[in-house]
Design goal:
- The protein is mainly alpha-helical.
- The protein contains three helices and no strands.
- It has one domain.
- It is globular and about 35 Å long.
- The relative contact order is 0.19.
């Protein structure tokens, strides 16, 4: 899990880069699983660092990116 090595902000920066790759049309096997891992890690790290996040909004956004990968 990324949350063992990265802070919440570092995870958010990584997530932003992954979103940019997808927006630019980048596709690779395992990207769906990568997004799921990022979501799980962000939730856990937000809890550890006591950062309030809108989990529902974040999950909805990630699911949207996962759907885009399927098409």
């Amino acid at each position: 899990m990324y949350d063992q090595f990265l802070s919440y902000q570092e995870l958010m920066n990584y997530y932003a880069r992954v979103k940019n790759y997808i927006d630019d049309g980048f596709r690779v096997d395992g990207l769906k699983e990568e997004l799921e891992l990022i979501f799980t890690s962000l939730r856990r790290k937000a809890g550890e660092e006591r950062i309030e996040i809108d989990e529902e909004k974040l999950e909805k956004e990630i699911k949207c990116y996962i759907r885009r990968l399927r098409h």
